[in-house]
Every structure is written in C-alpha cells, then in structure tokens.
Write the structure tokens for this entry.
Amino acid sequence: MSLAQASVWSPLTSAHWAEETLNPSAIDPELLPLVQQAMPLVMPQVELAARRAWVPGKMDGARSQLSDPWERAATDDGAGFSRVELEEVLTAAFGLVLARQWTAPPPEFAPAGGGAALARGDVPARWGFGDGAPEGPALLPPLAGLLEPEAAGAAEGEAAAGGEGEGNVVLGVPPRPAVGSLGEGVCVRCVAARRIERGERLVRRA
Amino acid sequence: MLAILTEWLKDTTRSVGIGSNVVLAASGDALAARSVEAGETLLELRSGACLTARAAYADREMGRDLQEIAAQVGPGFDTVALATLCAVERVRGFEAETWYAGSTAAEQAAAPRTMRKEPCTSTASRRHICTAHLANGAQ
C-alpha cells in the first residue's frame, strides 16, 4: 500500500511548475546574489526531501514508472537526484516564485464605496481581515490575466485584451464589516468593474 | 492539469464562484460563465487557495527547520520559504506521505507562526538575507 498521495497544494504548485517549464522565468541579475546567498541555507531541506522521496525501482532508468519527464530524466541513472539537479530545481523554484508571487495583498475594497471601488491607502498587511488571515507573499492559482501579479498580469492582460485597454475585473481584499463577520476567510475578491458578457475573458484592472 | 486545478478550486474552503461564475479555458484564461453586472462578485479566493510561507512552515518534513532559519534570518524570509516549498514539491513528485514518523504537522498548522522581527539595516549580520528587498524587487 502506498503511503504517498497528492499533496494538499499539488494542484496549485504543479500548475505553476507546468507553466514555468513552458516559459522559464529569468531571475533579475540584481537579485541573483541574494538567491545564491539563500540557496545554501535551504538546500539541506531540499536534499533531505529528495532522499526521502527517492524510491529504488520506481525511479530506475528505463524501468521508471514516473510520468513527469523532468523527474524521470533526473533519476534515470538509478541514483536519485544529484546535487546539480537539486540546485537546478531550487534555482528554478526561486525564478518561479519571484516571477509569480504577489509580494503583498491587493488593496482593500472601500467599505462603502460601491462594489468595485478600492480604498485608497496602505496595502493591507493580511490576505483578509481575520486575525488568522495569511500574510506575506503568496502564490495564487495561475489564472492567466486575472490572478497574475502586477508585472506579468498587466503586460499580458493588456496584450490579450486587445482594444479594451483596461481590465474588466477589480481585485481586492474585503474590508472588515462594521457588524458581523461576513467575508471572513476571503483572501481576494474579484468584482466585475463593468458589465461582462458570458464567455468574455476576465482581465484584472491594473 | 487544468481539470485538476478546477476541481481543487471548487472546494468551498478554497474558492467560491468557480464553475458558477468563472470557468477556466484550456489556455488557462478565466472566462465569465454568465453575464454579470458591474459590482457583482465573480470569484472569492479563500485561504485554502492562497499559498503563503505558512504552508512551508507547517510542512511535515521541513517546517520546523524553516521556522528556525526564518528566526535567524529575519523578516522577508517568506519568499525563500515559498521557493523552498515549491522545490520540495517538485522533487517529491507533488506527493506527500500520509504518515511521517514524529509528525507534528497538525499542531504546527494550527499554531500561529512566530518569527523574530528585525529591521533591515546595513549593519545586519552576513547571514541576514535582505529578502524584503528580494520580494520588492520581484515586481
């Protein structure tokens, strides 16, 4: 009986990795020294995970049962992941995160400013108004044009929207209601900025 | 891949609106599943669909180690933790063990994360990676 199953976050992380494999992200040269400084700190954790994940026989060259081409190639010598291969995957992971993470939540919606009106002011510290809401940088599901972070989303959104010129959806964090807890647990809310027809592509308004 | 992501998002602990208001095209684009008026909510993402460093710190295998490193390094380590989690997911084949000796994942996940907060200064120690800059430089 297998003791492994799909990880909780695997639909999100594998979707990001699939896109990253097709379109690898380059790390900003200015950030490269920082990435190189960070890698030795966490490489032991990656190596340990790789050792535990390696299964003799399953990851064994021609007899490999692995469906992931990268994983199959990395272990086709029957000896698991090499140090170089792990450095490559960790570097790629930094590229992925730096390109795709939201460094902070989007602005809050104005409490009484209408459905798609964002409050002016500081970026909220948390993804939601609850005390236990997540904080810090985040990877959201890779929905092209809608949930991509500013740099990638704006450029692609403009290109894909063609003549629209601006998006049709506003993203924001719900504000704490004056009474009750409606919206608690919601990290991001996507609200139509104008009437949207069925089948129309949803593009975040920058 | 897209079908798996869609099904995963349909869980109400992760989002509300996938399927009823928003559908995913084969290209990965999000499309309106119905016509909506300005001001209508199309999609809500909940914490179950928002991957932050909290998940890395709650990881069964490496969570505690990452918490210790984060405490030493200081603020801004979250980007590094996220990258580490992504790398580890990759080498694990996006799988997780259902059982792990000495696992304290449940209590780790429930406990609030504590990190020592330090200002980012030019006199910070050599081990202090200014990952706040790393994060800010991403956009």
